[in-house]
Structures
1.
Amino acid sequence: MNKEADRIIALIAAQEHVSKEEVLKEMQAAIDAGYNSTDPSVRAQWDAMPFHGKPAPQEFIAYLAGAISEKTWKH
């Protein structure tokens, strides 16, 4: 697992008083719901991401962290 993603997951788990496994389960459920959406605007967002299929939570965290970092440095 990506060290930074693992750190973020552990932080969320501690803040929410749940296990890391529970955080991963909930994150995957949210990813699944978004990925399986038929809403055209949601589909457009997923199509713009570099994933080949549905990402795991760790992959999604890494992608979002990179996207946020990129946006921060552009402004």
Note: Residues 57-74 form the longest helix (18 residues).
2.
Amino acid sequence: MNPQTINLCIAEHYIKVTFLNPKVNNYALISSSQPFFVDEKPADAEYLYDLVVDDDLEPIEKSRRDRIRDFESGNGHIIVDLIKDGGYQFIFKDLRGNECSMLQCTKRFEHVKCALKGGYDSRHFGLTNVMMFSTAIAASFHQTLFIHASLVRHNGYGYPFCANSGTGKSTHVSNWLRHIPNCDLMNDDNPIIRIIDNKAYIYGSPWSGKTPCYRNIKAPLGAMSRIDRADHNYVEKLSPVEAFTSILPSCSSMKWDSDCYDHICNTVSKLVSLVPAYIIHCLPNREAAEVSCASIAVK
């Protein structure tokens, strides 16, 4: 059987995915990415990375790699090995501890290979994590940030809301959508920020948590905000230093890789010089949405 190759355009970055055995692994495993499929890459564009899905991929010999990380990711477990002659090997496990995928890549994720295991759900989980992680890290070297946030578009501008789990981010976003005119949801978990020609833009992505909001759309970034539960509604504008420390923890990164982490820090530093950042201290009510919109929305 001939391999199946698809091209994607995510946040205006082009990605090539090749399935060596499409009878077992194919584009159906990444159905949320279909709005991002494109027929081909423009001739003057480069691929952010190429991914080959090959279940015959063998683990790197233990003598050629060192274990550097073994941690819970929030939706599973990740094991990270540093390959001695360059690059990484990752193992992604689900919440039950089942191994779903193995990823091998060059240091900057320009070239990625993966093997999938198990039934459809396991393979879907494994490939989703491989692609999301690979895209986040490869893009980090191109003034691009993956952030954990819910993203609302209002009057043409994008407003991502970051928050710790259980803080009330989803309720606040719902109140914007319900009570603020000219709003729609762009993404509910993993939007993407890019700095292009000294301007900040924000994009939907194929990854949106539990909310099926997979929109291939773009908007100028209006402001960055973090939600903080409080006993009354008010908005605090952050200094550049405060903004940096507020935004950085919400960015996907590899802190153990100084090259990657330095690029992310530099992009966040540039971002806070271009776009205002706020803490929204709020209750879970309509007034919170109205107060925050009045404070942060581009006039």
Note: The two ends are 56 Å apart (CA to CA).
3.
Amino acid sequence: MKNFIFDFYNTLVDIRTEEHSADSWRGVVGFFNERGISSDPETLIRLYDECWKAHILEMEKTSKYAYPEGDIRQVYKLMAAALGGTITDIDAAECAVIARRDSIRWLRVFPGTDELLNALKSKGSKLYLLSNAQSVFTADELNRSGVAEMFDGILLSSDYGCRKPDTAFFDILFKKYKLKKRDSVMIGDDVNSDGKGAESYGIAYVLADGGAARHSEQILALAEDRA
């Protein structure tokens, strides 16, 4: 193998978030209040779930993809509208960043991740990231994790309107970077999105439960396989 395609969250970085905690929404309550939109944490938690569902259902009506990916900015605009207000795309992006910041309990690179990625690079491997994620905040989290510079290509689902396990998302990556299936392996912690997607697309898969670094021996062995 020479192309190693990684998931990000819970594969390269250990993350815990609490989107349904009242404390995670106080910042957005304040942001909305500054724009004349009155609310409270409990209402926003309910609206967040409802508006995400409504957004995805609407996308499924028109999307060409089997697994369409939403844009979190549209969710916050729907939330504001449900409360009788209006916000811009810029406002919605800021809301997403505020809520994400306040919901994170920890975000840290798994021990051994840097060593694994550097070892793969030293063997001449190409590294790619294929993640179900919202670029409005994930791009910054990638940079803060320190791993972004290691990758030859990074694709985040919100930028493409589809998500794993959709084979279309894999195909976008493979066509963009002219990858060959026989030379490629998907590495991720989720057997449904990562594993099912890789299997459906016809590429190898390594289950990275507990983080990819825990499976370094298996992954590095694949880098030696040039068949």
Note: The mean pLDDT is 96.
4.
Amino acid sequence: MKMIYGVKDRPTAGKLLLFSLQQLLAILAATIAVPIIVGNNMSISAALFGAGVGTIVYQLFTRFKSPVFLGSSFAFLGPMSAAFAGGVSMSLGYLGLLIGAAFAGAVYVLLAIIVKFAGVKWIDKVMPAVVIGPTVAIIGLSLAGNAIGDLMKGSATVPVLEWIIKDGLPIQQETAKMLCSPYLALLCGLVTLGVTIVCSVYGKKLLKMIPFVIGIVSGYALAAILTGIGHAAKVEALMIIDFSLFSKMQWYPSFAFLEVFKGGFTPPQSGSIGSYIGAIAVGYVPVAFVVFAEHLADHKNISSIIESDLLKDPGLSRTLLGDGVGSIAGAVFGGCPNTTYGESVGCVAISGNASVITIFITALMAIAASFIAPVITFLATIPKCVMGGVCVALYGFIAVSGLKMIQNVDLNDNKNLFVVSVILIAGVGGMVVSFGQISITSVACALILGILVNVLVNIGNKKKAAAVESEAKEPDAKTEQTENTEETDALDEVAAAVDENKEE
């Protein structure tokens, strides 16, 4: 994929702001979704602030050589929710979030130290193109369900009560009912996708580089018109956007570390504080090792897109340190550990803009927007169907970039065919392994299985390689022996001829 702007290039001021806004819109939905899912009044503006801070920390560690944005990690949803549970295992609230993020970051620092001394050559052996290619594709394909599901959803909902059976007893549970027609939401999503495609394929110059901005604005405008008509005619099916969010704006971020000082945790009623911290470690540390696999896949992916191996320059040790320390810094403010974002990578691929200064300005925008209530509220009102339309393209590009990595792999060889097949089916099938509160994601499961299968099908390769080398040397020995024999025969013939002349 040819980049219009390279890593070190600096677009003009006007273009830079547009490109940065596009990156912000691309990562927005997922970044603010994590605190919404965890609940407990976690601040979405604080999560956005934390993502911006984490990204700047990452860029500092990687010497501004890696065009990647860090956002809230979905992998830590389980441990984060448990930290707020107030149950037997954890009940430290925001303090638990900060302790957990520290454990996760420590894992990255430890891995960075190991890589610093062991190098990265082992990665190419353990995870060659036949393994990493389909794994990157799975990152996009595993998110396909989210994109398609969002295509038929708006943001306007009303709370409803429904009866459910829990522990054998009927209880009432509050859920959210979507107001708009799913078909009208789908229309807005498809318009967003269509405009994005047209701008990217047929657009000229600047228009070609900001297809997401134009697509989102077009989809939002259509949704706003339908919502306005719906309110005027009192037709709920037309109400796609939830404008009521503006009446309950959060005027400033509620930072996680400040919530701790407000008493945002429950002291343990029984047992020592050490046992609670140990429980948090058990929740966060294994997940951090799982996310390490996704870190490798993301950086392999962006390396292939910008045609520069980031595992060598700035180096995997630096990207790990940036990711780990950036996660801790982001969690201090937003409560959410960060991770590299596939949406950001997809945005780089589609726009052809790998300029790191764009990522840096995006991080500053995220920090600034978190303090401007109308801006953060406006971004939060972008309906899911509009973001779903954009994500169809984003996630698709991630999948395609992974498949491009295996275009030179011989799939007629059963060894390679088995490795790719196992990874794709495990990933697309959504294979997830859980141990209590610890879940190994489908991407990590697919990668682990791929590595094991690759080892299995290549067990005898070293012996075969040695045999081939030995066979290669044998013909040389035989040739040398034949040449010596021929030379001896020739000398004998000359000697016989000399004897005959003497007799004559």
Note: Residues 461-503 form the longest helix (43 residues).
